[in-house]
Specification:
about 425 residues, mainly alpha, two-stranded antiparallel sheet, 15 helices, 6 strands, elongated
Length: about 425
């Protein structure tokens, strides 16, 4: 670690100068030799660095979302060229170039603050060894070596020997307890930050290997922080714990106000926005208009939460406009999952019942088992008559083949027997 920190010695002087300036302010309040003065100086250094890195953080968010959008296309390329690694890499690079996406953009904030991290490590190592470094002179060095944070000197580590700890005026037990608690908090904050990203701000409609990688990192990063944390001085632990807490809060703000489409955070955001529009009747914030504008531009490609938001506006007599605002609408339509629309208040379309095999074979719906069969009643004309029917012309009918038909044999076509006339005696 000392070798890596020495590579960033060119930035040691600016970092030490910033710490000294903050130390002057806090030293006037808490005392120049207190742990509060030096600890808050390191915290202020972190906040200043992270404020300067906000543009990179915004770029990281855009790059992460762009990578999530490209996951289905990347999966297709991997399956198509799974036996040709070179062609797979070429197609991936072409996809990045066509969409203007850079996978390394998501790592920019970490890479950008790494020099400051190693420069601070170099400064604290110099304080621990009793060497002046940067703009820290002998007086500031003596003050920093006397500073304790909850009983632990600023420049000691978890692995330091008891003799070194006692030389800085502290006990080994206090150092081990303080550093262990800070390492646990540092790892826990890293785990919660990654878990918050995976559970709330990921498009749940797309299942890709990228999500599996993020889940692995959710467990790997905290373990890495715990392993490396035992070799960090207390001042560096303060720095890294502060930057983790800052990242967690910054991410919570972004997830709440600018969630990823298709995520649980977006559903919660649109629900809050619907209540706001119902109460005020309009959209006032610029960020809200940007999100509504994007939803309107999607058309039929909207997800379930977005359709629910549009239908909620319709029930209020409002319609989302192309510029992201809302206006009153006389035509009210409800959008369904398949992208079709129907007038508001219209009866819901019902699917026809599926016919059974017997119904399909008979060509019509079968009668219910408990439905009574129709009964036939005899009318007056159907009753037996005493007079014989009129005589029919003799001779066979054409095409009858000389045989007697059923009508001539005294049988009706329906199978009902004609009553015989009384015989004459």
């Amino acid at each position: 670690m000392d070798t890596i920190a020495s590579l960033f010695s060119f930035i040691t002087t600016p970092v030490s100068w910033v710490i000294v300036q903050f130390h002057k302010v806090y030293g006037a309040i808490f005392g120049p030799d207190t742990g509060w003065a030096w600890g808050l100086s390191i915290v202020s250094l972190v906040i200043l660095i992270r404020i300067c890195l906000i543009p990179l953080f915004v770029k990281q968010i855009k790059a992460t979302r762009a990578m999530q959008t490209l996951q289905p296309e990347m999966k297709k390329i991997q399956e198509r060229y799974k036996n040709d690694r070179q062609r797979q890499s070429e197609e991936m690079m072409k996809l990045y170039k066509d969409t203007g996406t850079n996978p390394l953009s998501s790592c920019l904030p970490i890479l950008a603050q790494s020099p400051f991290f190693f420069a601070l490590y170099h400064v604290l190592s110099g304080i621990a060894s009793g060497k002046t470094i940067g703009v820290i002179n002998d007086d500031l060095l003596a003050s920093a070596r006397q500073a304790h944070i909850f009983g632990a000197p600023l420049a000691v580590k978890f692995t330091d020997s008891a003799a070194k700890v006692e030389s800085l005026g502290a006990s080994l037990t206090d150092v081990r307890v303080v550093t262990a608690i800070m390492i646990v908090l540092m790892s826990a904050s890293q785990f919660f930050t990654q878990r918050q990203l995976m559970t709330k701000n990921v498009d749940t409609t797309v299942k890709t290997p990228y999500m599996q990688q993020q889940k692995m990192l959710m467990y790997i990063f905290p373990v890495m922080f715990a392993v490396f944390g035992i070799n960090f001085p207390v001042g560096v632990l303060v720095y890294w714990l502060t930057t983790n807490v800052w990242t967690m809060g910054q991410q919570m703000f972004v997830i709440r106000n600018n969630p990823t489409p298709g995520s649980k955070a977006q559903a919660a955001y649109l629900e809050r926005l619907s209540k706001h529009v119902e109460h005020h009747g309009k959209i006032r914030r610029r960020g809200e208009k940007v999100i509504v504008k994007a939803i309107v531009a999607k058309g039929r490609d909207r997800n379930e939460a977005e359709r629910k938001f549009i239908n909620g506006l319709t029930k209020l007599g409002l319609a989302a406009q192309a510029d992201g605002s809302v206006a009153k609408s006389e035509v009210q339509v409800i959008e369904h999952e398949d992208g079709t629309t129907t007038p508001a208040g219209a009866p819901k379309r019902q699917q026809p019942k599926r016919q059974s095999k017997s119904q399909r074979q008979s060509g019509g719906p079968a009668k219910a088992a408990d439905e009574p069969a129709p009964t036939t009643s005899l009318t007056k004309s159907d009753e037996p008559q005493d007079t014989p029917p009129a005589a029919k012309p003799a001779g066979p009918k054409p095409g009858a083949g000389g045989g007697r038909s059923k009508a001539q044999s005294g049988q009706r076509k329906g199978g009902q027997q004609r009553p015989k006339s009384p015989s004459k005696k």
